[in-house]
Amino acid sequence: MKPKKRVVTNRSTAADPYAAPRRRPALAGPVQARPRGPARSDAPAIPVPSRVADVDLSVDLAPARPGALALRNPILVASGTFGYGVEYGEVADVQRLGAICCKGTTLRPRFGNEPPRVTETPAGMLNSIGLQNPGVDAVIEKYAGLWATWQTPVIVNVAGESIEDYVTVVRRLDGVPGVAGIELNISCPNVGKGGLQFAVDREAASAVTAAVRRATDLPLMVKLSPNVADVRAIAKAIEDAGADAISAINTLSGMAIDRRRRRPLLGNTYGGLSGPAIKPVALRIVYEVAQTVRVPVVAIGGVSGLDDVLDFLMAGASAVQVGTAIFADPLLPERLIDELAAYCAEHGLASFRELVGVALPKGRDRPSVKGVEYRP
Amino acid sequence: MRLLDAELISSREILPAQWLQAYHAPSLAGSVRAGQFIHVRTPDYSGLVLRRPFSVNTVDRATGTVTIHFRVTGKGTEWMSRARQGERLDILGPLGRPFEVNPRTRHVLLVAGGLGMAGVRALADEALEAGRRVTLLFGAASAAEVYPTSLLPDEVEYVVATDDGSLGHRGYVTDLVADYEAWADQAFACGPEPMLATLARLARGRDERLGVAHLGRKGGRTRSSAASGSAQARRRAWLQVSMEQNMGCAVGACLGCVIHGVDGPVRVCREGPVFAAEEIAWGEPA
Ligand SMILES: Cc1cc2nc3c(=O)[nH]c(=O)nc-3n(C[C@H](O)[C@H](O)[C@H](O)COP(=O)(O)O)c2cc1C
Ligand code: FES
């Protein structure tokens, strides 16, 4: 049975994205989702684990559709860094991952950008892949059958140049066995608005989310771009438009120079910065978004060790995605699962979810604006 | 493809800023073929987030060692050049597709430009072992950068070109190919892209100049009968090239190393690094 369409109760029409004051953001529920109830701190009925194996790592990233995106653990792999889940199969155990976000998928096949497409930068890298992919039909034909046999859910990352593109792609994915959810990559130029990215335009972000929401009952996660002045208004608009979860962040816009040739290094001139260099930015954005929305936040950006995972959880993320770090260490995601369980056991936590949001400002009705005013 | 922990057993600077290092890696030595590469992790992850790809330069199955040959071009290779005997490196490999020598090939022509030597060096050993004759054409800027003869098997005919004429032919290594194109049953090249593009152009005109049929193309078979990227397509090609490109994952996941193939985009790390010359769309807008 398909879950019912979500009834959006908190659609805000006011221009002020913070018009509806919130308690603490609701954190992602446990897998056996119960109705949104009292704050978790009131219900410590679960025994404190002494063994790593007893730690509950499960998390539901779409609490409004109980069980539809119930993950065994909160360690995902980020879109574009793990292909379609098959490429690293000889060295990594994909069956252990919380979920896989596959490469960005568009309606039609795309060649992508001119080479060179990647280059290393201090504590990071730039990429300008240009959304190369074989198109949604080929992705379904080549991979969905295999994905359907995996215990690890595959979330298809979707990109487009118009709302119709997004909707068409998502309609084709809807109901396909092996497709567990959608992650909308809205850091794409919106042809209808002169190439302005969906992600930087609150109305466009809201419109594309709402249109996709109407097109599918699949769990829907929307991925934020960091290249905006205030991400909170956009996050709020996306939540109001019916997203089940928000992931953040995509890459930061950057470039590099080829000094020998005296010209931009990347074939596309600009590229997206990722890796440890962007973690503080990602952390700030997760922290802001977690105070703005109630849906689960999935952190992305520079995760390369357990400390990063803990930081993001404490800043309000319910799960994390590992991206660039996989290139150096393909076994990192699996190790993070074990290390997170060990950390929880050591600190007497029955579930890692007890860490989620502990560093957020307490006892406030309105989200903190502290620090946000500091825009050098 | 495997993740392995390999011990550095020797390291020396064979040319200015160019190093030859031997690693103990029995599983790699047992499975790698000429033309394939490895992806090496540098230890300072917080600063250097990418592995570094290296062609496997030589393989010694008996002792389970492989060598790599690299130039210090940045922080990662600088760190590697300072690694001491006994240090352990995290290696992913073997990766990519190897050179494919046609079973009927008796005369092998290798063409290398500078560091491109590392790309074809292992094939010299493989071809000699299989009883083939090998001529190696090598090009460098000047005599100071010419790969030492002492590091090549005696059976290899070694012909050198330098840009400044300080050793061997004065000019490009590609100038030397004309003398060997009739002799060679197949040619294998690695080096800067303009060199490879020139070779590809020469290879295209070779049929006409020599009036010969391509190897393995008898019986009415055409290029399209061997799928682009297949071992068959390479085995039938007169010229195979080892391409270089910046890499992220090196396993085909990130599409960071993609270049233009005649039938569409190809991943250097997965469909390559070795391609039949006619599989590459040379001189596409860069
Ligand atoms: C090579 C590469 C390709 C990427 N492709 C996509 C993509 O297709 N869609 C997308 O939403 N994000 C893409 N990303 C962004 C990552 O999913 C992630 O948001 C970003 O890299 C930050 O995480 P990290 O620092 O852990 O890599 C890509 C990143 C890299 C490095
Ligand atoms: S380097 Fe990632 S696909 Fe080739």
Structure description:
The complex is a heterodimer of chains A (376) and B (286). With 376 residues, chain A is of the alpha/beta class. Chain A has one domain: TIM Barrel, CATH 3.20.20.70. Chain A contains 8 helices and 18 strands. With 286 residues, chain B is α/β, with parallel strands linked by helices. Chain B has 2 domains: 2-95, Elongation Factor Tu (Ef-tu), domain 3 (Beta Barrel); 107-209 and 225-279, Rossmann fold. In chain B, 18% of the residues lie in helices and 31% in strands. Chain B is globular. Classes of the chains: A alpha/beta (376), B alpha/beta (286). The complex binds flavin mononucleotide and FE2/S2 (inorganic) cluster. FE2/S2 (inorganic) cluster is lined by residues 247-250, 252-257, 267, 269 of chain B.
Strand-helix topology:
The complex is a heterodimer of chains A (376) and B (286).
Chain A: E1 59-60, E2 70-71, E3 75-77, E4 99-101, E5 118-121, E6 124-127, H1 136-147, E7 154-158, H2 163-173, E8 181-185, E9 189-190, E10 196-197, H3 202-215, E11 220-224, H4 231-240, E12 245-248, E13 252-255, E14 257-258, E15 263-264, E16 270-274, H5 279-290, E17 297-300, H6 306-314, E18 319-322, H7 325-328, H8 332-346
Parallel strand pairs in A: 3-4, 3-18, 4-7, 7-8, 8-11, 11-12, 12-17, 17-18
Antiparallel strand pairs in A: 1-2, 5-6, 6-16, 9-10, 13-16, 14-15
Helix pairs in contact in A: 2-3, 3-4
Chain B: E1 2-15, E2 18-24, H1 26-31, E3 37-40, E4 52-55, E5 58-60, E6 65-71, H2 75-82, E7 88-95, E8 107-113, H3 117-129, E9 133-140, E10 157-162, E11 169-170, E12 186-190, H4 193-210, H5 231-236, E13 239-242, E14 258-261, E15 264-267, E16 274-276
Parallel strand pairs in B: 8-9, 8-12, 9-10, 10-11, 12-13
Antiparallel strand pairs in B: 1-2, 1-7, 2-6, 3-4, 3-7, 5-6, 13-16, 14-15
